[in-house]
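User: I'm new to structure prediction. If I give you an amino acid sequence, what do you actually give back? Let's try with this one:
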Amino acid sequence: MAVRNPSALRWLVGVELANYRKRTGLKQADAAHRAGVSVGKLSHLETGERQQQPSDIAKVLSAYGAAQHDINRLTSLAEVPDESNWWGAWRDVVPDWFGTFVGLERLAIKEFVFEPIVIPGLMQTEEYARELSRSSQRVRLDHSERVVEVRMERAHRLAGEEPMHLHATVNEQALRLVVGSPENMREQYEHLINLAHRPNITFQVVVPERGRHEASNGQFVVLEFDKARPIVYAELQDGAMYVQHPGEVNTYRVSARSLERVALPPDESVRFVADLIKRL
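Assistant: Good question. You get back a string of structure tokens that encode the predicted 3D arrangement of the chain. For your 280 residues, that looks like this:
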């Protein structure tokens, strides 16, 4: 990723260009020579450090022998209005590695998330998010409220005229984790049930009684886009990993399908949460 922190859109275009080059087996210098551009320019195209022009993208991909439909796909992606840095107002409280993710999330048309420890950020109530931020050793006390603002802003992607489709699988442990008061937990559970009834949201609970699944390495997110290949995001202790290679991405998609099979069906998942409310 470029040191100057490119927008998520430019980063996404750059990742695709770099992957095409790598599949040809060319180093940057050889690829630049074949495409008739400088090494510096090719580097900037791949990192997204500067705005990529559709004509440059087409020129490079043509030199790699890319199919015309892929050339059209990426050039049209570069023409999309760039709103992926909407979180700029919170730049001082959002680390770059997470800022890239929320930018990509704004561009995605579908997201699959597996959360084993806490309720997914997109599905959190404001008070639940506030309690998590207050108790986190990684969030400064004076930044807590603004971190919550970012989380609430992210949730807007689930509404509007063209909402993103969210498929969330959540461990029973995450649902039982006490975050705040019983009133806070009741509000969070009711919010989950309301979200689960939206046509663009699929919610499933993973319980141990249903057996093992393939998501043995913990939390991960698969983001799917209209004009770019899927990308996987997984959080580390103090950072994140982005998986872009198609074969590696497919491994996570296999895990997602495994979770979908093993987890409680959506209607049973809603009843599971409703039962948690009764036990408060």
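You can read the tokens as a compact description of the fold. Here is one thing that stands out. The mean pLDDT is 87.
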